Amino acid sequence: MSSDTDTTDGPLAGDTSSSTSLERTGEGHRERTADSKLETPLWQHPLVGLVPRRTAVTALILGIFTLLFTVSALGGVVTVDGQSLDTTTGLFDSLSAWVIAIATSLIVAGPFLYAAWNGGPTLAAAIPLVPVALGELVTGRYAFGLDWAIALTTSVAGGVFAVYVLDVREAGSLRPWDVSTDAPDRLLALTVFTLVGAIAVGRFVLAAPETLPTASLPFALLWLVPMTLVTRYWIARVRTHERTVGPSSAQS
Amino acid sequence: MGFGRRGVLAALATGVGVALVPAPPSQPQLGRVQSADGRLQIDGVDAEGTIRDERDSPVARYHYKRTDDGFEPTSPINVVFDLERAPGGLERVMAPLEDSGWVRSLEEYTRYAYDADRDVYVRQQATAAETYYGTSGRRHVRCWQFGSVVSMQAHVDTGARPKHGIESYADARQYLSRLYAGEGWDVSPQTLNLENAQEPDHDGYATVIHEVEA
């Protein structure tokens, strides 16, 4: 394992991580690290990201996107001497091209790249929803269009994949469910998230078949990722339960 | 499996989650487009449905992008609305799109149409699309109203890779014909010869939609 991976493994070990970092930082910091759980900012939580610097870079990217988005949106609204701002320079066309390109990257690839790079499932799941939510804010409507459907698809797939990535790093196995499955709350949360996403997207597909271009159809395959992973976690959970409790009491 | 109370909570959370996610917009009742009734009462349009002199007609033929050297046509006008009355006409044209869940603010380029009457290029007056970004493609229109005519450029965008291209002009024109026919408006397919044929699939004709006020 590279030293980089060793650092990223640190926060995963939960309680042991504070003792590990304690040894690394030395005696002088004992007082401060003793209650590190309370002091750790939310954005440094492993569910957000494994390496705080990478989490910060991701937040910066989202911030830059929000800025570009805002300037572009203002270009069509603000008027100068009765002229719409976007008629004063062709730069707004370039800006629109950038906003669309970045939004598309965030929606299509963002969750998966982030999950593989920095683990945190909540941020992985949030990344594709950020541009779509910004768009909804500007339009002032609250309706589920194709951009929503695709973003929610990659959000669920990327979020569940990020949980899997965390488990793989922790277990050191590509089949982490064989190593540890004792997280019923987490499994239920994943199941709820996947179900909500699947129902919302399914409802849209049934309601608006006329608005589905062919280019959107391959995204349906992405549902295999959360479906497979969640199912696999459930199977492992049931098996563990049968082993520990035994079949007779499981029936009661 | 020890999931009793948690299971109930999870089921509740699923219900709440589904309720919070926005619902799909109501879909338009797409109508059947009848054959043209031949009624064309647009200034500057002759009996053959051709505009002899652009300066005499409120119909726009292209939308333009601004360049360093002036204005350069980019896409052909392919739907033309003949309004019952001019005031508020543009908004009445946009209403069925809005009712179908199209967004009226969106990420798009700035385009212009030529207003022959005033001899100026005018920025898009109203636009709409199925989604804000069109990451995987979208139907998208830009509109201008000159007099009692609304000229619409309608197209289907390709997915962003990374920029939008034109997937089709004809599919968008066809879809909008059905959408406005569903609203009870009179649709005369491909009756106005704007002589603006263009790749990938525009034949140079605009479909004329005559407003029928409810």
UniProtKB/TrEMBL annotation, chain A:
Residues 24-36 have a biased composition (Basic and acidic residues). Keywords: Membrane, Transmembrane, Transmembrane helix. Residues 1-36 are annotated as: Disordered. The keyword Transmembrane helix applies. The chain crosses the membrane at residues 56-75, 95-116, 123-142, 148-166, 187-209, 215-235. This is Uncharacterized protein.
From TrEMBL, chain B:
It comes from the Archaea. This is Uncharacterized protein.
